[in-house]
Each structure stands twice: as structure tokens, then as C-alpha cells.
Amino acid sequence: MTDRERMLAAIRGETPDRIPFVPRLEFWYRARKRSGTLPAELEGLNLIEIADHLGVGYYAIVPNLAERTGEDDMVDYALGIYRSPVLLYEPVIEEVERRVRRDGYRTAVEYRTPVGSIETVTTYTEEMLDAGASVPWRTKHAIEKPEDIDVVGFIFSHTRLEPRVERWKAQQAAAGERGLVFASASGSACPMHHILRELMEVEQFFYAYHDYPEKIHWLAEQMEPYYEGTKEICACSEAPVVMLGGNYDDAITFPRFFRQYILPALRDYAERLHRRGKFLATHTDGENRRLLGLYREAEIDVADSVCPHPMTSVRLEEFFEAFAGKITVIGGIPSVLLCRDSCPEEDFRRKVDELLVRYAHQPRFILGVSDMVTADAEWDRLRYLADRVRNLH
């Protein structure tokens, strides 16, 4: 079987010829390229070619937002609005005057609308770039006071989406049988999750949610057509798997919040996709202990970037038990195992061998490194992993 066939089989609940191994290499690659520490054998290779060289599947699950066509692709990042050749749609903001000021890694954007103005600021640090970061840090959020909500609501209600579904075809054609390219609907699962995750400081969101909930809910209503648009464009594409939402944490997107806002959005979209013979994935890389049962209730098909103990409190077997054969796990290898300073060599080999002995034939399992292969991961350990998986019987 090819890597793409193995991934699809695991998502369908079928048994591939061997466990698929699809590590997320983009952050490691960017960091090593920037520092000039790429292994000599990888010089001049792109990510797909590196996956080929390593003998693993090509990761195209969470979109690589470092792939851009111009400097304006990330200009609206502080709003949670992205432009990238890997996305299936192009957001077009209308009736808003936008003024952009750049100073090195710092980008300030002023949005002027008939109902008022806001300013956002994003930046990179050298440390972020050294780690392979693909998107900047928000240093000034879109919403800092109640009246900013009106402006953000106007912007989203005046943003239309132009389908660019040919992009997925191009991405899948480039990956070929090396990988399965997921269509990306949105990094947040629903408008309320978007407001929390993208538009406000976390503490400020919960204060606002308590002090003036009617304005927060009004904003979510203004954003709903945008979300419907992203979902529908992805659902109508030829992609068999759609990624919606991610970066949950059971202390921030706590169970009551998750059940009220995120679970219905995931389940609604899962039902839509299932009617079309497609699958829904969501990105589950945080502390998930109190959310595991809710993922199952949401009827998602794939939990991407499952990050087990010791990086979270949940052991890998607990994920499989909670998902009860209904959800395919992508991940399972804590990224710290690949780092010499975090894990001695003999412990790394022992833990990897134990994991493969126990889970190599586990249904609904795509082996990956959670959340990603980090800048300090050792190439020799990646090769050891890839060789062990390739030689499984």
C-alpha cells in the first residue's frame, strides 16, 4: 500500500499492510534550514523529498501556513483571517479601509469602518524564527474594549469567501501517493471558539463573556456566515478529509464551554460530511483528559496530533479506550522523545520499541510526532523510528 492508502484505510477503520508513519517535519525543517544545521544528505530537498528520503508519509494535515504567495498573506492574521496557497478559499474584505505599517518583524494594521476603527499588531521574535514558527505572535489583539466588538462584527459581516478548490487538487497532486492532503476549513471550530482563540486575550474573553455576553453572542452571529462559507467550500471539494478546529485545552475550552459551543459545531459538520462519504478531523494537541468523551459525542472521525504522557496527563492507551474504536488517532509519539536533552538514547529506543510492539497493529492509528518534530529533534532518532516502522511485520 502507499502512504496515502494506509492513511485512508486507518481513517476508515480498515487494516493497512502496516502502520502509517507521518511525522510533521515542517517546523524542524525551517529551524534547521535557518540555523544551517540540516543534515548534509537533506541539502536542497523540499519537505516532500525529505519524507521520501526518510521513507515516511508526507504530512499535509494541518496546513503549512509558511507557504505564501506574498507579504500580505498574513496581514489579517490578528483577525484569524488567513490567506495561503494551501487553503481552499480566499477571504475578501469589503467596505473596510486597511492601513498597514511594517517595521522589521512588526506589522501594525489599522481597520477603518463606518462603525469605528481598530488596530492590531503582530510580530516575530528571533526565538520564534529559530524554532521554525510559521505565523507571528499577536501583541495587540483585535478586541481590547467593548466598542471594538462592533468593528470586528462589521469586518466579518463584510468578508466574502472566494472558492479556490483547485488548490487542494494541486496540493494532492504534488503529494501524490506519499500523503493524504486534508482540506482545512478553519483553525477554530466555531465563531465563539474563534473569538476566544484569535480575537482577545484569554482572560479578557472570559471577563467580557461574563460582563456583556449579549455583545459576544452578537459577534458570534455576525461571524457565522463566514464559518458556514469555509465549511461548505471544503465540503464541496474533492478532499476526502476536512480539518476543522483545534488547539483545545480542558482548562480553557473546558467541558461546559466545549459542550455548549464546540461540540455542536463539530457534530453538525461531521453529519454533513458523513452524508457525502467524507470524514471530519480536528486538531487535539492540548491537555484533553476531560474532553475525550466529548470528542466521541461530536462524532469526529480523526483526532490529529494526539499528544500523550509525559507531555500531557493522558496516556496513549487512555485515548484508545476513550475513543472506543470510533476515532482514528494521529500522533502518539511525544516530541520530547526525539530530543537528546530530554530523553537519553537508551530510553528513547526502549520507549519507541515498547510503543511499536504494543500498538503497531492497533486499529485506527496513524503514527506521528505530537505536536510536531521540534527544532532540537535528532535526525538519527527520526531515521531509527522510520526504519523500525518500515521493518514491522
Give the secondary structure arrangement, pairings included.
Layout: H1 3-12, H2 26-35, H3 47-54, E1 89-93, E2 97-103, E3 106-113, E4 116-123, H4 126-130, E5 137-140, H5 146-157, E6 159-163, H6 166-175, E7 183-186, H7 191-199, H8 202-211, H9 213-235, E8 241-246, H10 255-275, E9 279-283, H11 292-297, E10 302-306, H12 316-323, E11 328-334, H13 345-359, E12 365-370, H14 379-390
Parallel strand pairs: 7-8, 8-9, 9-10, 10-11, 11-12
Antiparallel strand pairs: 1-6, 2-3, 3-4, 4-5
The neighbouring-strand order within the major sheet is: 7-8-9-10-11-12
Mean pLDDT: 96
Total helices: the number is 14
Under the CATH scheme, which class of the domain at 3-62 and 239-390? Alpha Beta
Largest sheet geometry: 6 strands, parallel
First-last Cα distance: 14 Å
Key descriptive features of the protein:
globular, 40% helix, TIM Barrel, 393 residues, alpha/beta, 4-stranded antiparallel beta sheet
